[in-house]
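=== Structure Prediction Worksheet ===
Name of assembly: unnamed complex
Input type: mixed (protein and possibly other molecules)
Chain count: two
Listed entries:
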Amino acid sequence: MFVAWRDLRFAKGRFALMGTVIVLITLLVGLLSGLTAGLGQQNISAITGLSADRIAFDEPGDGKDLSYSHSTVTRDQWRRWADAPGVTSAEPLGITTTKATAGKASAGVSAFGVQPGSSLAPDSTRIDDHSAVLSTTAAEELGTKKGDTFSVAGHELTVSAVRGEASFSHTPVVYTSLRTWQRIAPPTAEKTDTPTATVVALHTDSGADVQAVDQQAGTRTVSRDDSLSAIGSYTSENGSLQLMRGFLFAISALVIGAFFTVWTIQRSGDVAVLKALGASTGNLLRDALGQAVVLLTGGTLIGTTFAAAVGAAVSGSAVPFALTPATVLVPAAVMIALGALGAGLSIRRITSVDPLTALGSAR
Amino acid sequence: MSLHLNDVTLTYPDGDGRLTALDRVSMHVPEGSLTAVVGPSGSGKSSLLAVAATLITPDSGTVTVDGTTTAGMSRGALTELRRHKIGIVFQQPNLLPSLTAAEQLQVMAQLDGRSPGKARPRARELLDAVGLADQADRRPHQLSGGQRQRVNIARALVNEPTVLLVDEPTSALDHERGAAVIDLITRLTHRQATATVLVTHDRAHLGAVDRIAEVHDGRLGTPAPAD
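=== Predicted Assembly ===
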C-alpha cells in the first residue's frame, strides 16, 4: 500500500470525485433499503408476527397463485386440519380490509378475525363479539384508547386493549372475534354465504403429512414466510423496490469498475516501470485492490452514516423508514463487496502490462 | 559479480518473416567496469539491454547475471533476480508522480517486502551521492530534467545491484547535464563495483568509460578501451 496511499493523496481530486459518487450511491441504497424495509413492515408485520409456522389457503386451482384477498376456508377445511396428526394447533384467521370510524375520525384498517383466546392476536382473551384489540397505529388514527367505542363496517365495538404495531397491506390491524369478522367480511364471488375464515394458521411438527392433508381438505399450505407472496401489494411493491436496489448495486459496481479501469490504464506506464524494477504482479494487484477497498470503505461509511442520519430524522414520522442493522450494514457490506469485485475485474489488466514498455525504445 | 551474454540471438516477427535484432552477441562485463554500447537507432542497443535486463528471453544463447544463468527460469524468478541483482536506469526517468525523490528509492524496499521507512537512511545516502540530498522531499514535477535523471540513477542502485543497465541516459539532457550524468554513472560504477552497461547513440562524454563496443545491425563489435 506504499504507492497506493501516496496515489490517494496525490490524485486527491480524482479520488474525491469517485469517493463522492460512492457516497451518493451508498446514500441512495441506504435510503432505499430503509424505505423498502419500512414499507415491507407496513405490509407484512401482522403476518410475520403470527404465532404459526404454516398457513393453509383454500386451493385456488387452475395454477393460480395464492392470495390472502381471494382465499376463503370453510369450517370443514379447518376441522380437517385441526384433526390431522402432527398438527398441534389449527386456528382460523379471517382477514379483510375495511373502514373503521370513531366519532369524526376514520381510517382504513385490516380486520383480523380470531377466536377469543387465540394465540394469533395479542391480549386475545379480551376479544369477544363486542370488543376488539387495536394496534397502536389504528388507535392513533382513530383517536381512541382502551374503553372507547368505534365501529368497523357499521358494527359498534369497544376497545379492550391497544397492543403492538401490527400492520397488513399498509393498514393498521384491528383484532376482532371471528364471529364479528364473519359479519363484516364481504361474501366471496364463488360462495354467496358469509366466509368462515380466510386461512388456517397452523403449528405442525415432524409428524404432519402436509401434502396429504392438503389433498383431503382442498387446501394449499405454505410456510408463514412463503405466504407473504400471497399479499398482492407486498409482492409488486417489494419486487419493484428490490429491483431498483439491485440496479443500484450493479450500477455502483460498474461505475467503480469503470473508474479503476481508466485509472489502471492511466498508470500502466508506472506499472511497467515497477515491474521492470522487480515488482511482482501479486504485489501490484494487492496494492491496487487495497487502494480500491480503502476508497470503497471510506465512501460507503460516509454514505451509510448519512443514510442512518436521514433515517433517524424521519423515523417516527409518516415516512415508513426502518432503521436496523439489516437495512444499514447489509447494503454497506454488499456495496463494498460488489465494488471490490468491479475494481478487481478492472485491475486485472495489471497482469498484462509488459515491463518491456518501460524501456521505451526497445523493439 | 559480472554480466555475461553468450552467443545471444534475438529475433522479432516482421511480416511473414523475422527480423534479427541481435545476431550471436557475446559480451562480458566485469564488476566495477563500465562498458558503453554505441550505435545508431535500430542497431539493436535497446534489445541488448532488454535481454540483459531479463525483460526479453532470447531465441538462443545464454545470459548470466552474477553467476546465475537465466535460461529456463520462471517469470517470478526472473522478477526476483531483477529486484535483487539488476539496476535499470531508464531513458526517461520514469519516476512515479505521487512519490517524493526519497520515496522513489524507498519503494524499492517495499517491492522486496521490507519496510520502506527503514530504507529511508539508505535513500538519503544515495540521494546525497547523486547530489540531491536537499531535494529528497520534492516530487518529480518539482525537479529539473537533470535532477530527475539523477533520482533515476539513485533508484537503480538502491538494492545494491551487481549489474547496472543504463539506457540512453543523456537523450533528454543538454550537453553540460549529459556530461555530468555520464560522469556520475562512471563514478558510481567504480564505487559500487557494479558491472555496468550503458547504451547510447551519442558518443560524446564517453571519455571516462572503461570500454566501448559498437553495435551495427544486431552485431556487436569487440569492446575496446575508451581513448
